[in-house]
Design a protein that fits this description.
The complex is a heterodimer of chains A (about 350) and B (about 775).
Chain A: H1 3-9, E1 54-65, E2 70-81, E3 94-103, E4 108-116, E5 122-125, E6 130-133, E7 136-142, E8 145-151, E9 156-163, E10 168-169, E11 175-177, E12 184-201, E13 204-219, E14 227-237, E15 242-250, E16 255-262, E17 268-271, E18 277-286, E19 289-299, E20 304-310, E21 316-317, E22 323-332, E23 336-342
Antiparallel strand pairs in A: 1-2, 1-13, 2-3, 3-4, 5-6, 6-7, 7-8, 8-9, 9-12, 10-12, 11-12, 12-13, 14-15, 14-23, 15-16, 16-17, 18-19, 19-20, 20-22, 21-22, 22-23
Chain B: H1 2-15, H2 17-55, E1 62-65, H3 73-81, E2 86-94, E3 97-102, E4 126-128, H4 130-135, E5 142-144, E6 152-156, H5 157-164, E7 171-174, H6 185-188, E8 192-195, H7 203-239, H8 241-249, H9 254-299, H10 311-338, H11 355-378, H12 382-414, H13 418-469, E9 474-477, H14 481-494, E10 497-508, E11 511-518, H15 522-527, E12 530-533, H16 537-542, E13 547-550, H17 551-557, E14 564-566, E15 572-579, E16 587-592, H18 593-599, E17 607-611, H19 615-626, E18 633-635, H20 636-689, H21 694-736, H22 746-772, H23 776-781
Helix pairs in contact in B: 1-2, 1-9, 2-7, 2-9, 2-10, 2-20, 7-10, 7-13, 7-20, 7-21, 9-10, 9-20, 11-12, 12-13, 12-21, 13-20, 13-21, 13-22, 20-22, 21-22
The chains are: A mainly beta (about 350), B alpha+beta (about 775).
Amino acid sequence: MNVKVLALLFLWPLGLMAQGFSGLGTDAEGFATPGPDPTFAFPADHGAHPDYRIEWWYLTANLSGLDGTKYGLQWTLFRSALAPGEAAGWQSPQIWFAHAAVTTPDQHFATERFARGGIGQAGVQANPFRAWIDEWTLEGPDFDTMTLSAQGADFGYDMSLAAKGPLVFHGDNGYSVKSAEGQASYYYSQPFFDISGTLALPTGKVTVTGTAWLDREWSSQPLSDQQSGWDWFSLSFAGGSKLMGFQLRQTDGTHYTASTWIEPDGQTTAYPDGAFTATPLTDSTVAGRQIPTTWRVTLPAQGLDANVTAVNPAAWMGLSVPYWEGPVTVSGSHTGQGYLEMTGYE
Amino acid sequence: MIRSCLLALLSHWRRNPLQLFAYLAGLALATALWSGVQAINAEARASYDAAAATLGDGQFDVLVPRQGDSISLEQYVTLRRSGWLVSPVVDGRLGDVRLVGIDPVTSPTGLGAIETEGADNPFETVFATKETALKLDPAVQVTLDAGMAPGLAVGDIGIVQRLLQRDDLTRLVVLPGQPLDQPALSSVAPGLRVQPAQQVADVAQLTDSFHLNLTAFGLLSFAVGLFIVHSTIGLAFEQRRGMIRTLRSLGVPLKTLIAMIALEMMTLALIGAGLGIILGYLIAALLLPDVAATLRGLYGAEISGTLKLRASWWGSGMLLAVVGTAAALSSRIWQIAHMPLLASVRPRAWVTATASRFRLQSIGAILLLGAAVPVALLGSGLLAGFALLGCLLIGAALALPAVAAAVLTVLERRTITPIWGWFWADTRQQLPGLSLALMALLLAVSANIGVSTMVSSFRLTFVAFLDQRLAPELFVQTETADQSAALATFLQSREVEVLPLLKTETTVANLPVELYGVRVGPTYRTSWVFLDAAPAAWDLVEKGEAVVVNEQFARRADLWVGDRLRLPSELTVPIAAVVGDYGNPQGQVIVSEQRFAGLYPDIYPDRFGIRTQDAALLRAAIVEAVGIDDGAFTAQEAIKALSLEVFEKTFVVTSALNILTLGVAGFAILMSLLTLADLRVPQLAPVWALGLTRRRLGWLEVVRAVLLAGIVFVCAIPMGLALAWILLSVINVEAFGWKLPMYLFPFEYLRLGVYALIAAFLAAAWPALRLMRTPPATLLRVFASER
């Protein structure tokens, strides 16, 4: 898929990582929009919501090889609707695309897939859970026990996942506000996955184990047109607690932040704009641009003041929509590891 | 001073409007044919480029069905779900328009160069040029895109499937960067095969030879046109020697004078060339529809039917005209620069025969004709073919004046009467002045003979070939294996000869070929004519011990009868025969039905030829008994008519260009005679004074022109035949991959001869009439001291 086609797709706001994020503040004509006090119905809500403009199943994992080498893994399936609803065959307004990546301390592999809805090439079914695009799958008898696979021309993986904790809901019971003007999405996670399996790398197969974090989010209008990109952190600390924190960078230089503190048993505390801070410390030159790959993150209410450092600063996703996504380590008031995603760095 | 000087120079044209006309018309004709042909070529190339850019044809491997042209949506999804990164394409025709549906989301080129900005919803519209849009149903939502290939509408697969009323796919494009783990194609989709990218015929390459042909014609006409310009410039300068001397004597500096002359002639050249480009545009616009039909028929290449003004062709026409004029002008300017200030004004050298010039021309002719020999023996490729053509034509043209002079000398020696003695000597004396026009006529007549020989040979061979290939009276196309089997069973009961055709595309000897399985029977044995064959060739094929190949394949693979060929099954068999296969760019290998079934057990015959006395009756019986749709039948006559029509279009283009070149040559003769007329008054006046009437003199002028044309025609016959041979046996083989047998058409040549004589007669008639009406005073003045 070339840039021109992508431009075509972006005639309709695709959401999330569109360059410059232009157009995302427009009215969600005909699409359902998230509202406060949501009631989720599972397993149905693990499946697709075709009346909303965008949706994703976003899995990241911090892995270790038998020799202690750190690895990162990403598997993301996106749904983007040109119009609300679903139709059979090529008439379907749904477009699917997916990203897969593996990060090693000195290498980064990434690839992507595209599919039309309505013909069976890609989709998500809630019960039993099955998300797929081409031969890539995330599936299992339920949302807690799954297998995961993806491959590209030079890498691939086959993994098993088992949830060791409950689902957690961000914002106000899963209603996650994304700007002062009130743009919002539905957002919940399963951050308690144990994961194990095999990475296929050009140097051979590597057996790995670790932890994984799955995000579910859907919306029709996630960003304000004043916002130019975001920095998103999912961190797991040594004591078993976890943090989801993001800052949306605004064109006037200010930030909108939100965060969720997750106790080891899954209890959550959501914090409003300004509680969580993220400050870039050092930049790396990646794919010809300056990207902050060391950050200072704070959440005073939880006594957090730590540095977040990329395992491999070169974790650039040079795909149709380029962004940075890779594993990180945490040091300072808390230690641990996690994943960092940064979009909108042009 | 400059102003009056310019006025003086320009006054020459006012006094000689005919010369001005000849100069402008010569340039216009030269530029017209050249730029017209280039305009057609440029249009075609732009169309090919647009097609390549919009569809990415030939850039990627594709998966195609082993049989038929339909792939189901399920097959596509199954392939994707198993890790085969492919993108679907549906390709069909809606009336005159080729409709291609792609999935922009997975396509490797996406919508490519298509401008999507104009569309409200690119998934609900097709993209096409304005011209193509007009051919589509008004109900179809079309977004105009001038960059699209002509005759092509591209849209999302969903809308295109709806328009074509089908729900299947035509082919799957294999994307670059396939994943690590992938099952074998044979296990996921056994009905499909990979067609490698480079094997998709490159349209531009296929059609190159056709365009080279056109270019050669354009260049030929350009050369003839420049002959006219050259002789006109020469004449104009001779006549202006007096004026130049006067201007110089009055004190006009040499440099100023040269600059003004150059400015004047080049300005006129630009006007002439400009007129030529307008003419060229008209010629191209007239010929383009036929050229488009030819290219579509021969190669399936779509080219635009409307002409655009492109700098590439009008620029090259302008440049050639200016450079050609400048070359002709430079020698004249050199003469002025070196002319003594008070040189004689007597019209001199231009028409005077100089032995040295003839000798120089003859040496050139010998060199060129000599060069043709090694080119013919050692050269290969299309370019060598054209080089050979060029050497022969130009060499012969250069040799023509010397040959004609020799003939005239012989005739002169044989006459005893004084009038005829004078006539021959006078003719010989005029030869240099006419030689350029005669050379032009020679080129035109030999091109005419050569091309008409080729065209007629082609037609004879092709009609015979159609009779051989389309021997069955009825053809039936089946849709499914069941239908095919039912038809076979039904036909078995009817006791008619059935020719089932099994077909697949594969690679043999590293070349893409169509592999056919045929049932060897009386029809093949009696009606197929081989170019070369082993004894009992069909018997060997029937036993599965040999194959028949078409000439295109044999030449490309450099194999011939007796050579061995490895079939896809690792089986090696000899070639029993090579068969002529005209009008088809594809290589073909033919094996027996049984052998084919052994190689491809899954492929069923989907096309049947049937020998029957009563095609209509059998057709009705099949429709009723087997339930085959009436549209699946083709009568032999219909196919034949369609094939012939395609070839007729090809010939229309060639013969139109032929007539144009002959016309230009006739015009050259007229202009030469007209410009010579004034100069010849001093030569004719004494003869008139001796008692020959003006009427008689006029008739003698006509006889002379017709006689010279006769000599040219006699020389043109061997030239034309040589040209035909090169076209049929060298250029055709290189361009199309087949050799055509050469037939001779004496009556056709005779007719051409008559045309050439008529052209000469018409060209001479006007000057002769003028001579007959020359006032005696003008002739008398020759004897006064005015000159």
